[in-house]
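Quick one: structure tokens for this chain, please?
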Amino acid sequence: MTPYIVDASIAPQVWTWITTRTGVQVWSNELVGSATGPRMTPVLDPDGQPNTQKPHWSCGKIDLVLTSLNEVEVSSSRELKRLRVALRRSGNGLSLKLTDGSAARARKACQDLRPWSCPCGWTGFAKGLKYVPVPNTRAEEAVCPKCKKGETLVEGPEPWFTPVYDGEHPEVAVMVEDRLVPLETWIKENNHAT
């Protein structure tokens, strides 16, 4: 079975439910167009009785029950850069959106900050790569700045941007998935174990 991936923000709660309430129930989301994804509840309520109450009206059935720490991996992300952006009202006036220029800058930052690595030990971002022409074609190939080889480069995960509100200026943070770690390892590394 492939491990179920949870965000680092909910990892302590998932660990608590697996260790003290015999597991975690993952409920499907029946709401069309919702970006919230599945919801989770402990298998047992605080009194030790089976927990069959839906966590939200939009939840359908229980898709998955996780009972072991080995069934869960934690996805942690890190911030690469922040950009100050300009906002505009949406077409119906009910929400705020990035202006076209701000959205283009955020997409360009995601493209430039894509992580790359090479077996020679070099790690860096797409912006720092050198490109050389490929013989007998019109294409170019990225080469490692350290070992000068292009065929060994490994492309990392795709960055994304997310809004950040500090109360003063609207900004977006360019984020990238840092790593996937087994839940038990993540708990030990972050001193959440009791």
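The chain has a mean pLDDT of 85.
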